[in-house]
Amino acid sequence: MDLYESVETHRKALPPPGGIQTQGLKQRSFQMRRSLHSIFFICTLLGLIVFCGAAPKLTVGATETVTVEEVGLTFKARVDTGAKTTSIHAEDIQISPSEDPRGQAISFLLVNKAGESKKVSGVVAEVATIKTSEGSEERYKVPLTIIWGDTKKTVLVTLNNRERMQFALLLGRNWLHDDFIVDVDINNPD
């Protein structure tokens, strides 16, 4: 037995510093660390399962051709990551006067750049107050289903007069969210 082995043997025979109570704390600390490692492992595993199970995002360009399902009208749309909400050109908006228009019936005319138009009836989901150079105006938001390729997505769309805009439909972040990424080199008219 060399000196090191002798010291080790005597050290093991001695009570730990702080007495028996410290040994219990060390054991509980070890068990707690072990539990935390197990929890971390399980969370990591679940994260990988969720990540691996997630559908890949589709890539859209700066502009895309989409269809509004409710009326079957096709629009050349601008994809705008700076716009929170999708916006569409609407004319002849009819709604019953009410203190709170949410939940009220609404009808409007959707018009694309080809001059095709269709009447739509629905319910106001939200109202946005927009500040303009002339003051402020209320804009109604209604749910519409937008089809791009094989993908259908229902989002809130702001009804707006976009007559002077190049695109009658602006696809905002609420349409992009969870499903799409934008590659501005695709379909960029600029």
Largest sheet: 6 strands, mixed, barrel
From the N-terminal CA to the C-terminal CA, the straight-line distance is 85 Å
CATH topology of the largest domain: Cathepsin D, subunit A, domain 1
Q: Which range does the strand content fall in?
A: 35-45%
Shape: elongated
Mean of pLDDT: 83
The helix-strand sequence is: HHEEEEEEEEEEHE
Summarize the structure.
With 190 residues, the chain is of the alpha+beta class.
Question: What does the secondary structure layout of this molecule look like, with pairings?
Answer:
Elements: H1 3-13, H2 20-53, E1 58-60, E2 63-68, E3 73-79, E4 86-95, E5 105-111, E6 117-123, E7 126-132, E8 135-148, E9 151-160, E10 169-171, H3 173-176, E11 180-182
Parallel strand pairs: 1-11, 3-10, 4-9
Antiparallel strand pairs: 2-3, 2-8, 4-5, 4-10, 5-6, 7-8, 8-9
Defining traits:
190 residues, elongated, 6-stranded mixed β-barrel, Cathepsin D, subunit A, domain 1, alpha+beta
Walkthrough of the structure:
The protein has 190 residues and is α+β, with helices and mostly antiparallel strands. Helices cover 26% and strands 41% of the residues. It has three helices and eleven strands, in the order ααββββββββββαβ. It has helices spanning 3-13, 20-53, 173-176; strands at 58-60, 63-68, 73-79, 86-95, 105-111, 117-123, 126-132, 135-148, 151-160, 169-171, 180-182. The chain has a six-stranded mixed beta barrel. Strands 1-11 form a two-stranded parallel sheet. Strand 7 (126-132) and strand 8 (135-148) form a beta hairpin.
